[in-house]
Design goal:
Chain lengths: 412, 283
């Protein structure tokens, strides 16, 4: 049996930058629609319009999860809204088989004056579920949300996390979709609840075709079987290998240099050397496992007698992965007197996972007062045959030993 | 297991397949019963829970209007023509009926506007908003009518058996109000001008309807009163309630038939317009 649940064929959507014109076009579109004319005209842009989604095509079967990734304004959410039937495509065709569920806009339709319990019923009926069905599941919903007695409190007194919890609980307990849409649903909420939500999403996803919009790459990489990278409405890449898609997404991000601190110290230059060769180009690649050295030129101003430095390697999300404090021969922080310095810093073997990285340099005084902190230096990429989970990849060779006579188990 | 339903979205206007579209519209209308009811319950509760005066607000405005007009006529500031009914009864029934019409007329735009957030993000039968607006109007009308009937009994009016037809008068007010309100909703969702101009226009129309003034006997004003399609609605409902034989029954029926036809057309327009409006309202 062919179990393709979503078919998207050459779908495009235009948006307008100017509000006045947008409203006017809206009126024109309205007139055309009521006269039975095709939406979107002949595929030409009117003044001030642009393609929010351009020629998107894919098919998705039950059990698959497509991650839509890209920068803000890339067209992910617009595409999702067309799939959900909220807005009409200007071109192309969308075909959806089966029941659609969406975990989007959790708690939409909540009335702030009414209690959480009352809002459960409204929210559920917006999702197309009957009161009798909700009655049977009410306790389960309240338990799931972990809101407790607040269920009798007006929703306006909820924290934003609590509303989202309640909204998620209603949808999570009640829907059994064939096609599931997820859009940045887990942005709020504490970690315990997020894990619970993820488990629910996995349960739902196993039985449905999922389209997942997120900026959370670790989540995308664990959740999705396929990734589509979008930029300015266009599909840059559609890959069955999420790692490849995520890599492409990160390659879109420019690691820009950002400087903070008092300015009493400056980074004059930072070079990355692999096997003694200086790397050039905007974003050079190095092989995982190669030996790297950093040549760092800094300028320190007076009057302090000593400044210290620390080198970091940041990942694509600008999170620090490796910290290298610059020591002297006695394992103390190296003292940098006022003046210009050239430091050669051996990094050892690069064990970083494939991905995009950059350097950060922090220069501070003896009291840890920051003199300079420069982020986004010398961006580089690490490549390897495959992308593993984890920040550091360190294969180990195991020794096979004979089992002892009486095997003892770990758990006991 | 049933073959799952297939939903198709294309740029084509559903009007190219009118039969399917109308069938789907009625299916959605039917499917949205419970949602409409829930939304109405939600709105009614919220509407009155946050107000100290609660449901009094359903009739405070027409009541104040009545008091103003009784004062104006008693004080001789405005001279009102002869009415068959005692003037206070005339003006009270008139303003109450007018308020019901206005409620019905405002409801579609109001409900759709209030649901912007939901509309932009969730797919549910949009018709539910219209139906919940009608429920809301009916509820508020019920409060007004209870007060109206109470007041009439206090004033010693005996409507007689004709009063059993009065609910029909109310329904036709709501029918006409909803049809007109729904007609302006699509454009009103795009441009706020519509929502602002409506009360202005309706205030003007009120003075061209037998709400606080009786129908003039002659002159161009009399012609305007007679042409005004709202005239037979107000008059017939009032006549049924106060025990007079309705004068304009023919015109009344014609207006209702026209309103019903209009309602069907604008329901279709509303359905077609929603995706286009949603596209424009959420940036």
């Amino acid at each position: 049996m062919n179990d393709t649940l979503i078919k998207v064929d050459g779908v495009s959507k235009k948006f307008c930058r100017s509000l006045k014109k947008s409203l006017w076009y809206g009126l024109q579109d309205l007139g055309n629609e009521l006269r039975g004319r095709r939406h979107g005209g002949s595929g030409q842009l009117r003044a001030d319009e642009f393609w929010a989604v351009r020629d998107a095509s894919f098919e998705l079967s039950r059990g698959e999860c497509l991650g839509l990734i890209g920068h803000n304004g890339a067209g992910k959410t617009t595409l999702l809204r067309m799939l959900n039937g909220l807005i009409k495509p200007d071109q192309g065709r969308i075909e959806i088989r089966g029941k659609v569920g969406a975990l989007i806009a959790l708690g939409a339709g909540f009335n702030p004056i009414l209690t959480g319990r009352e809002n459960i019923y409204t929210n559920a009926s917006v999702l197309g579920l009957s009161k009798r069905y909700v009655d049977a599941k009410l306790d389960e919903i309240i338990d799931y949300s972990e809101i407790g007695d607040f269920i009798y409190t007006p929703v306006q007194n909820y924290s934003s996390g609590m509303s989202v919890r309640l909204g998620f609980s209603v949808a999570a307990v009640l829907i059994e979709p064939d096609v599931l849409f997820l859009d940045e649903v887990l942005a709020v909420g504490d970690i315990g609840f997020v894990i619970k939500c993820l488990n629910t999403m996995r349960r739902l996803a196993a039985k449905s075709a999922v389209v997942f919009v997120s900026h959370d790459m670790p989540l995308v990489s664990t959740f999705c079987t396929r990734v589509m990278v979008m930029k300015n409405g266009a599909t840059l890449l559609d890959s069955l290998n999420p790692a490849e898609g995520i890599d492409r997404y990160f390659s879109l991000i420019k690691h820009e240099q950002q400087t903070s601190g008092t300015g009493e110290a400056r980074v004059l230059g930072l070079d990355l050397l692999v096997d003694g060769e200086r790397l050039t180009g905007e974003e050079p690649s190095i092989q995982q496992g190669s030996l790297a050295t950093v040549a760092l030129r800094i300028q320190v101003d007076g009057p302090r007698a000593c400044a210290h430095a620390c080198l970091f390697i940041d990942d694509e999300a600008m999170m620090q992965v490796v910290c290298t404090p610059i020591h002297d021969a006695h394992s103390e922080m190296l003292c940098l007197p006022p003046g210009e310095h050239l430091l050669e810093i051996p990094l050892g073997i690069i064990e970083l996972n494939a991905g995009k990285y950059s350097f950060m340099v922090a220069i501070f005084d003896a009291t840890s007062f920051s003199l300079a902190r420069v982020q986004g230096l010398r961006p580089f990429r690490v490549f390897s045959g495959r992308r593993e989970w984890g920040k550091i990849v360190r294969p180990a060779v195991a020794q096979l030993r004979a089992l002892p006579k009486k095997a003892s188990t770990l758990s006991g | 297991m049933n073959e799952p339903a297939i939903t198709v979205y294309t740029p084509d206007s559903p009007l190219s397949n009118p039969l399917i579209m109308v069938r789907e519209m009625f299916r959605d209308l039917f499917a949205s019963r419970e949602l409409a009811w829930r939304l109405a319950v939600r709105d009614i509760r919220a509407q009155y829970r946050q107000a100290f005066l609660g449901i009094l607000w359903a009739f405070i405005l027409p009541l104040a209007n009545t008091v103003t007009w009784i004062f104006l006529s008693r004080a001789g500031i405005v001279s009102v023509g002869e009415t068959a009914l005692p003037y206070p009864v005339y003006v009270f029934t008139g303003t109450m009926l007018w308020a019901i019409l206005m409620d019905a007329m405002n409801a579609p735009l109001q409900q759709t506007n209030a649901a912007r957030g939901m509309l932009a993000k969730l797919n549910f039968p949009r018709e539910a908003l219209v139906v919940s607006g009608i429920y809301l109007t009916l509820f508020n009308a019920g409060i007004k009518i209870a007060l109206l009937i109470g007041a009439l009994i206090l004033l010693g009016m005996n409507p007689g058996w004709n009063a059993l037809l009065f609910p029909l008068g109310i329904l036709s007010l709501i029918l006409v109000g909803t049809a007109i309100g729904l007609l302006i909703t699509p454009v009103g969702m795009l441009y706020t001008d519509v929502g602002r101009a409506l009360p202005l226009l309706m205030q003007f129309l009120m003075y061209l309807s037998p709400v606080v003034f009786p129908t003039p006997k002659e002159g161009w004003a009399a012609t305007l009163f007679k042409i005004n399609p709202l005239t037979p609605l107000i008059l017939t409902a009032r006549d049924w309630l106060t025990g007079f034989p309705p004068e304009f029954l023919g015109y009344f029926l014609a207006v209702n038939a026209a309103a019903l036809a209009l309602l069907l057309v604008v329901l279709v327009a509303y359905r077609l317009a929603m995706p286009i409006l949603i596209e424009r309202m959420s940036a």
